[in-house]
Amino acid sequence: MNQVYRHVDTYLFSKSVDTGAKYLKVEKPKNSKSFCVMLDEGEEIIDEFEGATFCWRSHIETFDDNSQGSKKKTQPSQKKSYIITFNKQHREIVIGKYLKHVIEEGRAIEFKNKKQKIYCNDRMPSWWACYNSMWKHINFEHPATFDTLAMDPKKKAEIIDDLIALTNGKDYYSKVGKAWKRGYLLYGPPGTGKSTMIAAIANYLNYDIYDLELTSVKDNLELKKLLMEITSKSIIVIEDIDCSVDLTGKRKKAKKNKKKDDSDSDSDSDSDSDSDSDYEGKKKLTLSGLLNFIDGIWSACGEERIIIFTTNHVDKLDPALIRRGRMDMHIEMSYCRYEAFKVLAKNYLGIDTHPLFQEIQPLLEEVNLSPCDVAETLILKNTSGGIEICLNNLILALKDSKEKAIQEAREKEKQDSEEKPKKNKKLKKIYGRFKKLFR
Ligand SMILES: Nc1ncnc2c1ncn2[C@@H]1O[C@H](COP(=O)(O)OP(=O)(O)OP(=O)(O)O)[C@@H](O)[C@H]1O
């Protein structure tokens, strides 16, 4: 009920700001942690909805507990409420739509104004226990947005559409019987913007981030407890999942021992628990624990959640961990190509075009330079003639990389050609032996 009251307060506050009302005051009610916006006794706010007019008035009732004959004198207590008046003919609108609208609007305004936070589960010092939470947090103030993120615009638009579908998907998810959450796998070489993408998603949705450090998690039970403390409308991030804990190697070992070949992906996930149980005793945080964390029964104990894994080595991950349904969208963060470069040039140098772009474009298509390396060359180091210097620095870096790549390719070719006669000699030897055997 308190929460509903808070949403109404927020809504009325926003209305009073719109109408420039002066009589609002901010108070901290007794026994409450948060501040509340109150109308003074008898003050009014007029609101309109679907052609009907509503008048909100604050009402304060005072209770004098001393009248009960108690010896101990106490301060009179106050109960605040709102009285809403409207024409009788609008009764249906009020009950059917208006009150719901007020609460939803209030909730949305609160969500928009809330300070984003980033949580982490690093090992807590003993005194932390008094906070009764397994997560530490600070305010999240990362400047990355989808506008500053350099990547193929089509891919970017696809991701934004997917996020919008998630946030509007309450009814859809309940209709299809799926937990209201989405998993994204971000993979690609270092410096291609995986962490930047997470910050951009968080800022776009105004979600909190829970940065889950798997190496600090003692066992599956602790993972479950961490999950239970994560709020709705949040992003759970596991960075560098391939290096977090050895969830893959041991499973593969266990799999090798299995006689049955689990080929289809569903039976693959079912076999997770079987294979894990082989070494469950030795290893406390297991792959099956993590799989349950992502989409087990407990994972549905919150709504509107996003789970993001990042990795530089997608091929090292267990297929069960990243199969569709767990990681719904696989997003490759790639080297900087021309379209992505244009975003960086706009952000860093404030330009949409430049004659030097003609030279840069073909180089970017054939050289693998990460957006991080490109961005480094574009940072303006002085103001006079800076843009041209930056672009020339980029051209130099690209040419340098191209030269190195050609050099490496030549060396590899040389190595291969040296190894080829050796390999042929070996093959001839084996072939000779076979010939002898079958003679
Ligand atoms: N796609 C991008 N768009 C804009 N800036 C980028 C992009 N990629 C990298 N950067 C810049 O490079 C820096 C490093 O990028 P980021 O940490 O996001 O890369 P990463 O892929 O997560 O790297 P790693 O795999 O090493 O963790 C960022 O601070 C950002 O300034």
What structural class do you assign from the helix and strand content? alpha/beta
Sequence of strands across the biggest β-sheet? 7-6-9-10-11-8-12
What is the H level of CATH, i.e. the homologous superfamily of the largest domain?
P-loop containing nucleotide triphosphate hydrolases
Question: In this structure, how is the largest beta sheet organized?
Answer: 7 strands, mixed
Taken in chain order, the helices and strands follow as HEEEEEHEEHHEHEHEHHHHEHEHHHH
Question: What do we call the CATH topology of the largest domain?
Answer: Rossmann fold
Number of domains: 3
Description:
α12 (338-349) runs parallel beside α14. The model is unreliable at 248-282 (pLDDT under 50). The chain folds into 3 domains: 3-63 and 77-115, no CATH class; 118-248 and 284-332, Rossmann fold; 338-436, no CATH class. α6 (220-228) links the parallel β9 and β10. The radius of gyration is 31 Å and the shape is elongated. 47% of the residues lie in helices and 16% in strands. Strands 7-6-9-10-11-8-12 form a 7-stranded mixed β-sheet. Strands 3-4-5 form a 3-stranded antiparallel β-sheet, covered by helices on one side. The protein has a two-stranded antiparallel sheet with strand order 1-2. It is built from 15 helices and 12 strands. The protein starts with a helix and ends with a helix. It binds adenosine-5'-triphosphate. Adenosine-5'-triphosphate is lined by residues 148-151, 190-196, 312, 333, 371-372, 375.
